[in-house]
Amino acid sequence: MILRMSTLFVRTLRDDPADAEVPSHKLLVRAGYIRRSAPGIYTWLPLGLRVLRKVEQIIRDEMDAIGAQELLFPALLPRAPYDASGRWTEYGDGIFRLKDRKGDDYLLGPTHEEMFTLVVKDLYSSYKDLPLSIYQIQTKYRDEARPRAGVLRGREFVMKDSYSFDVDDAGLQASYEKHRDAYIRIFDKLGFEYVIVKAQAGAMGGSKSEEFLARLAVGEDTYVRCSRCDYAANVEAVDTPAPAPASYDGLPAAHAEQTPDTPTIDTLVAHLDEAYPRSDGRAWTAADTLKNVVFSVRHPDGRTEAVAVGLPGDREVDTKRLEAELGEGVVFEPLTEAEFAARPTLTKGYIGPGALGEDKPAGVRYLLDPRVVEGTRWVTGADVHGSHVLDLVAGRDFTGDGTIDVGEVRDGDPCPVCGASDGGVLESARGIEMGHIFQLGRKFADALDLKVLDENGKLVTVTMGSYGIGPSRAVAAIAEGTLDEQGLCWPRHVAPADVHLVATGKDEAVFAAAERIATELHAQGVEVLYDDRPKVSPGVKFKDAEIIGVPTIVVVGRNLAEGTVEVRDRRTGEREEVAAEHVVDHVVRVVRA
Ligand code: ATP
Ligand code: MG
């Protein structure tokens, strides 16, 4: 292939687009890769489309290599399957809905679990047909609340989604591992820094889920990693290690004390230091207090309840972790004044374990942070205005209805894997989700009744895995991770061309030599972007080559008179004079290296 700058449909721009904040977004627009059509909706221009197609091909090759088979679903989908799975309503404002001329409901597919499940149900009926993995590379639609950074988070975007179908859990595990390995090969090849994090499995519980995050400061996801071992997890998925339970023999009995005007933890700690100094000599801290936060919770089936979270007073409840813990479709808010009023045993600002628990008059389900283990000693509300209890011991004086791990995760918290043994601590970093692999289990097969006959002629529900990657997001992430002050700077596997050949000046001989080099490179299977524009200054051509970001730049110009051309490495800026007669071999070697 030879792309000629004289005819290529591209216009590089000097100014940043007004709506762009993220560097990759600015450069993809300025270098002529994408154009905005509407908020979060982009047109792929020839250069951009070439990169997108290369990313897709890398993914396709690895999917094919694990025996997954490509098919293609429509983007315009009927409502019924999404009603059956509950997602027509669950998605809320997140999907594009439309009606046909008869008034029937349709949606633009945000993801295709339902359709994949139904097509397998349609065609297969026996365990002998499984395992099966099928995938598509297709345009998805989500009415994202905050589309941003160009194609990084679009409302229309490309996704590769694959699904595995197995008769049993061991089969699912094997399909999952195959996809995981393929994803590692894909991300290694795409050429950006990534980390595999344990993700939260949501309401499905127990099932395994991992995300591949690009390590980018512009990412919207916060994850934590261990300072010592290779543990990494989404903040939602961090399991707080519980300390070992301790004996409470010999601990003093609990005692309620007057703590007037101490509705906040800070005022309480200050008052304790003054009125009840600790016997061990150290000062009281917020972590010595047990804070009880009450929420009103509404479940998807309409059921409501009050739930209290008891956690060390130096931590807030992380609402994202609570959301993940409560499960899909569950909504919650702090208990309202009216709900407080309806529960007179709850004393706002002084709520303690004494009033909490399903068996108490207020009927509040009481869930404890994992740090609140048997034998731990707390200062907490005495359920009387202006009073707290000291030396209240977990296991001896109170218990919860269960545990819940929704306290905020902080830098320096012990690593759940090696914190106890090696002292590893968590540190947070930013990333963006590039891929997600997920053991779905039987959720969709149950909802849509996908069953096959097993070896004994018995109907069994199929178990599924789902595996997604966003090729369009990947283009932005790769650009973001590789660009420099001069412009885009593509890794070789995804660059829109292998070589950017620039002919400078007005000399006929220069253009003739460049033309010959382009033709010979092309004959060797090298993709050439050839700047053959006759009346454009060398300065403009070099600037364009820099911003477009093809990894190797060959300049044919003045030095041709001495029989040499210049070969530049776009990334390092290294320049080399190469004999014109050897340049084709030289470039082929560089490109194939
Ligand atoms: P995010 O948390 O970033 O919104 P998600 O959890 O909604 O992502 P999935 O539903 O798991 O994403 O979709 C699979 C893949 O599709 C993601 O890993 C990502 O690469 C891509 N993707 C999802 N939403 C978008 C989007 N709005 N624009 C571009 N790519 C997207
Ligand atoms: Mg996800």
Describe the model.
The protein contains 15 helices and 30 strands. It is of the alpha+beta class and 593 residues long. Strand 15 and strand 16 form a beta hairpin. Helix 1 crosses helix 12, helix 2 runs antiparallel to helix 6 and helix 2 packs across helix 12. The relative contact order is 0.15. Bound molecules: adenosine-5'-triphosphate and magnesium ion. The site of adenosine-5'-triphosphate has 16 residues, from strand 9, strand 22, strand 25 and helix 12.
Which fold name corresponds to the CATH topology of the largest domain?
BirA Bifunctional Protein, domain 2
CATH superfamily (homologous) name of the largest domain: Bira Bifunctional Protein, Domain 2
Q: Roughly how many Å apart are the termini?
A: 20 Å
Number of DSSP strands?
30
Helix share, percent: 25-40%
Number of domains: 3
CATH architecture name of the largest domain:
2-Layer Sandwich
Say which molecules are bound, naming each kind only once: adenosine-5'-triphosphate, magnesium ion
Percent of residues in beta strands?
Answer: 25-35%
Query: Can you give the mean pLDDT?
Result: 93
Low-confidence stretches are 202-206
Number of helices: 15
Shape: elongated
Structural class determined from secondary elements: alpha+beta
Radius of gyration: 30 Å
Outline the biggest β-sheet: 9 strands, mixed
CATH first level of the largest domain: which class?
Alpha Beta
Main location: cytoplasm
GO molecular function, one term: proline-tRNA ligase activity
Subcellular location: Cytoplasm
Keywords: Aminoacyl-tRNA synthetase, ATP-binding, Cytoplasm, Ligase, Nucleotide-binding, Protein biosynthesis
